[in-house]
Amino acid sequence: MKSILITGGAGFIGVNSARYFAEKGWSITILDNLSRRGTKDNLRWLQDRTQLQFHKVDIRNQNAVERTVAEAKPDVLLHLAAQVAVTTSVADPREDFEINALGTFNMLEAVRKRSPETFFINASTNKLYGKMEEVGVEERNGRYEYRDLPNGVGENQQLDFHSPYGCSKGVADQYTIDYGRIYGLDTVTFRQSCIYGTRQFGIEDQGWVAWLTIASVLGKQITIYGDGKQIRDVLHVDDLSRAYEAAINNREAVSGQAFNIGGGPHNTMSLLELLTYLEDELGKKIPLNWSDWRPGDQPVFVCNLKKAREHMGWRPEISVKEGVGQLISWVRENEPLFDWLK
Hints:
Layout: E1 3-7, H1 12-23, E2 27-32, H2 39-47, E3 53-56, H3 62-72, E4 76-79, H4 86-91, H5 93-114, E5 119-125, E6 137-140, E7 143-146, H6 164-183, E8 186-192, E9 195-196, H7 208-218, E10 222-225, E11 231-233, E12 235-236, H8 237-249, H9 251-254, E13 257-261, E14 268-270, H10 271-282, E15 288-291, E16 300-301, H11 306-312, H12 320-333
Parallel strand pairs: 1-2, 1-4, 2-3, 4-5, 5-8, 8-13, 9-12, 10-15, 11-16
Antiparallel strand pairs: 6-7, 11-14
């Protein structure tokens, strides 16, 4: 039986990935410190559906991390544990660094010393590319779009670690690649763009698709930063799990590399477009507050998926409307999980 160790495994992407691989017959080990809202509920939900090993460990604790990796010796380590919000990184850059940079370093060291045959997958972010001010952007049909990149941003785009979050995730991204180069480990880093789906307890500064959906269904106040015309390519979490599987199945082809993983040009949505869709689906007008742009916020980010398609044979399958429709249904069916919003 193949085995996978998932750090941050009680988070939104973690539990969905664990469910996905459990259904494929994998042995699942979860590492999480359960500090984020919703993780205890997520863990209970997962434990009700599959057998797993759980270790309550903080990735900043080097000794505990190494013990867990030495015990599990997994075929695959999926590293999802992170501090995930730009605004939080600005408020507390030291903690952001310790979780994202030092925490990833600890995980890589644990694999290097305790389980060097493990395939290491790092969940990175499109924030590594910064604001990309040199890339032409123009407004078309009430949304921002790239002037000269119809297929989106490729992995050869210059890195520009804008914000403490961008810096800490950039460190993790580059260490992951270099550990493959210097120590001969099999590693890959996914620069992920706007992942959404069920069991995501989105908040205002992270997980915008989930947050706007949750707030709209429950009638909570929504603030739009900027003008709402900024677009992202959005990717359903089940498509992301398929991407992880595709990387595992093509381990030699992807090792030592970075891949942009998102919805691509065919799965884009602006904030205002999402709100319009939610108003149509919910049958009500959604009141908005407006505020300034946030540090490092890009008017456009869309992944070019050519490299992932060529190396892994992967592309998204779930449309934005289908995925957001599932998210609406989940929020409606699980309102007690959002009592903290009251």
